Amino acid sequence: MEASNIGGGSERAEEKGIFEYFGWVYHLGVNSIGHEYCHLRFLLLKRRCIAMYKRDPHQNPGIKPIRKGIIGPTLMVEEVGLRKVNNGDLYVLRIYNRLNEARKREIACATAEEAQRWMEAFNHAKQQAEFELSRSFSARDKLYMETEYAFSSPPDRHLGKYLI
Asked: Residue 157: phi, psi to the nearest 5?
């Protein structure tokens, strides 16, 4: 896979104090019959929300995400490093919830710099979640935020498919 296949880099916007980061990444995984896949997907982080699309939602208004979720304070992002995927080199990040490490998912970027920017964006969203948790006075809210699993599939899809 070449960097030219990405179709644009990641971008960051801070409007009225709302953190947003978006761009094209590769979603890596293994399907239910054991075959590895590498799909180009548009990833959007807005505040603590994350959504994955097949197409750019800015250019296709009204499009629904194929996966979505909330980033909580238990999010973990690890840099896996360079991996050869489909005869090309990609920089892989592993994303998971430290409360449920069985659901580790991977995204990949064409360059190390882009992977680093995505790590920073995920960490920024995690820090926002930690800040909101620290200023929350409700024990129920704290319990909810600690058990959040980010990025589930829509309800009409298989329940076992989660990004995080």
From this structure: -105, 180
